């Protein structure tokens, strides 16, 4: 039982490390978090704002589709900043080739094809990002059709704050048709999780293509998570995780909840065994 409990505690520590990595950003890199993680032998990871907004890029040949319609105006400056982080933190380190495409009423391509991920290319992409402006409608279908035409493409990362300007079912049907010819995963990112119709559309689009749906965690939740991670998950009276919208965080939270339940059961069994052994010892002594 002691060995089992030690292994469960080790699993939970690894889960917490993974959770911190997925949520990585300035809020979770405080001295308090560092002390807690060091005490428990957790390896620190560098802060990466791009994962918080875009999630984790998995494929080596990708295209980023960025909504620059008028409704993106309030978010665009933050998105541009974190897109630059994405270019250097994930695309440069993990990808062989990439491209960027913004869409509103029309499309704006950085390059006509996927290009090799070099320092020079990343610098050029960064300059292109700085000139993006928000205006017009949301032509998601047009953007997806163009992106699917890129040779050797493996993954698309679609960031938007709402539904397309065409029928959602039309977009889903067209993507299914395109997928019959090319195995490209579409990962979706929502900047407006309160629009439930848009969220449902983006969830379906990701699910249909074997991709993941991602919704950035807000500042309030991040602040709460900092305190929660500082306290840990070992004891039964520790606070529970908040609900997550995105697939990766939601699945990880489910695994953490399951592991905590197993740990509490094991601790309870250990306590009962200890009481039983103590009682038997007293009987033997008497």
Automatic annotation (TrEMBL):
InterPro entries cross-referenced by the UniProt entry: VWF_A, vWFA_dom_sf
SMART domains on file: VWA
Highest taxon above the source species: Eukaryota
Xref: Pfam families: VWA_3 (PF13768)
Domain VWFA: 61-256
Protein name as catalogued: von Willebrand factor A domain containing 3A
Species, as recorded: Rhinopithecus bieti
């Amino acid at each position: 039982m002691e060995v089992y409990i030690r292994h469960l505690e080790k699993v939970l520590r690894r889960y917490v490390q993974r959770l911190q990595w997925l949520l990585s950003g300035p809020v979770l890199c405080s001295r308090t978090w560092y002390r807690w993680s060091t005490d428990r032998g957790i390896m620190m990871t560098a802060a990466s704002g791009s994962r918080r907004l875009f999630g984790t890029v998995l494929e080596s040949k990708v295209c980023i589709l960025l909504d620059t319609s008028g409704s993106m105006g309030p978010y665009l400056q933050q998105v541009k900043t974190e897109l630059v982080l994405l270019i250097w933190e994930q695309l440069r380190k993990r990808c062989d080739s990439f491209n960027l495409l913004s869409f509103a009423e029309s499309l704006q391509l950085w390059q006509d094809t996927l290009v090799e991920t070099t320092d020079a290319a990343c610098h050029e992409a960064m300059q292109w990002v700085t000139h993006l402006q928000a205006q017009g409608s949301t032509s998601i279908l047009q953007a997806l059709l163009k992106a699917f035409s890129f040779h050797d493409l493996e993954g698309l990362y679609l960031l938007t704050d709402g539904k397309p300007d065409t029928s959602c079912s039309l977009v889903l049907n067209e993507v299914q048709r395109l997928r019959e010819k090319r195995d490209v995963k579409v990962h979706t990112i929502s900047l407006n999780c309160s629009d439930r119709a848009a969220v449902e559309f983006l969830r379906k689009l990701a699910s249909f293509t074997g991709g993941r749906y991602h919704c950035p965690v807000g500042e309030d939740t991040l602040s709460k998570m900092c305190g929660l991670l500082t306290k840990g998950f070992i004891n039964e009276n520790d606070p529970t995780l908040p609900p997550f919208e995105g697939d990766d965080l939601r699945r990880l939270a489910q695994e953490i909840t399951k592991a905590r339940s197993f740990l509490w059961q094991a601790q309870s069994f250990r306590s009962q065994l200890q009481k039983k052994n103590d009682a038997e010892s007293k009987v033997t002594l008497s």
